[in-house]
Amino acid sequence: MTPTLARSNSKSQASGQLDLGGPIGLHTGLPIRHQVEQRLKERIQNVTLLPGTPLPENELAQQLEVSRTPVREALQRLTHEGLIQVVPQVGTFVARIDLDRVKEALFVREAVECTALTNISTRLSKDDMAALKRLVEMHQAAVEKNDTEATLRADEAFHRYLLALGGVPGAWRYVQEAREMHRRVRILTQTSAADGARRSVAQHASILKRLAQGKLPEAADLLREHVRMNFEMAKELARSHPDYFVASSIATLPGTNA
Question: Average pLDDT of 108-130?
């Protein structure tokens, strides 16, 4: 099923208006460069600024009401993070999504999270079961409200709790880094109740059920399927919106015209 955009600023961006959230607040105590960097990073990761959007330095400075120097410094740092692409003699753009990097990120998630799950040696305690059940309920409530940010937070909390149960809470930083690699795909894609965020909630509930039954191998299999679903969503998005992706990363993907 072809994904629909969770949110779209294509109209405003097509008219040349970047949605940057207004001027930078100079009273926060943070250096201006850091504020500019945080603002741009947030707008990119939350896809307020869509992949491929031009980012003229002058316009950024004017809208944020700062000089060009902190804007230039922020752009350089975000370029190193892979969120911005500079094309010599052409311009600066929001980086397109690299499907190969998404695949690698999901490989890391699958390896770390599924291994951690199989490390659980006993049935979950009543407290752990209650905590996970609350997280599933929070996830469900956020989905029903169509609250993207709350949905992502609840989803992350569930996965983080599983890592802690597996005895490797510190591994979350690696999983979190991997999740950031496909965050834009998750926000950009919302499909029907059978496939999208509601399916994710249902999968969490199924994983929890297997854990309650002490069926760790089955729980790990469900978690593996759950993580891999993200790549299927990414491929569907690439087919419907190839302009959001690095062309070379989807060149061999059937159904794209990249």
Answer: 92
